[in-house]
Amino acid sequence: MSIVRPFTCDDLFHFNAVNLDPLTETYGLNFYLQYMAHWPEFMMVSESAAGQIEGYIMGKCEGSGESWHGHVTALSVAPEYRKLGLAAKLMAQLEDVSEKKRAYFVDLFVRVSNKVAISMYQRLGYVVYRTVLEYYIGSSSGDPDEDAFDMRKALSRDVEQRSIIPLPHPVRADE
After folding, report:
1. What digits encode the pLDDT tens for the residues 54-88?
2. Which residue intervals define the domain N-acetyltransferase in the entry (predicted)?
3. What is the secondary structure of the chain as a DSSP string?
4. What pLDDT digit, counting tens, does each position of 106-134 carry?
5. Domain for residue 79, yes or no?
6. Is the pTM for the entire model greater than 0.85?
């Protein structure tokens, strides 16, 4: 039995196994601490009955007007805990927090090559809003190495679901 609970500072010393996946973006300690300070309600872990971290999600709310939205910065589940619905449970929690913040939609970026994640997000109701060219940077070269899909899911405040009407052309990350 897993529980979803708030991410704590102590978790920073126990979630490395979750971050070993090459498709998981990892950040410096200060980045995680900044999120914990500014958006603690958007940081959650899934924990096993034995107290092991199975996965985590971190995000924030940003934008203004009809662009006010929840954003998934990182979602990762340890390989041995995949296919158990933990990612869906974490996403639902972040969507709930976004609803309470009166966001219009939730968005996330995913590598265009990550077909497993794209399929999961589509099952959760996300659509590809746009392609962002050269979004991901190579870890060793520092050069752009892959495009991203910006995927979105409209929330209840976006009654007409205008936030998820796909753009007809790709964009650059700085647009």
Report:
1. 999 999 999 999 999 999 999 999 999 999 999 99
2. 2-156
3. --EEEE--GGGGGT-GGGGGSTTS----HHHHHHHHHH-GGG-EEEE-TTS-EEEEEEEEEE-SGGG-EEEEEEEEE-GGGTTSSHHHHHHHHHHHHHHHTT-SEEEEEEETT-HHHHHHHHHTT-EEEEEEEEEEE-TTT-SEEEEEEEEEEE-TT-TT-GGGSPPSS-EETT-
4. 999 999 999 999 999 999 999 999 999 98
5. yes
6. yes
CATH number at residue 130: 3.40.630.30
Is residue 11 domain-resident? yes
Is the distance from CB of 42 to CB of 59 less than 8 angstroms? Answer: yes
Main-chain phi, psi angles of 153, to 5 degrees: -135, 125
Q: At what angle do helices 115-123 and 86-100 cross, to 10 degrees?
A: 60
What is the rounded distance in angstroms from the CA atom of residue 40 to the CA atom of residue 37? 6
Q: What is the Cα gyration radius of the chain?
A: 16
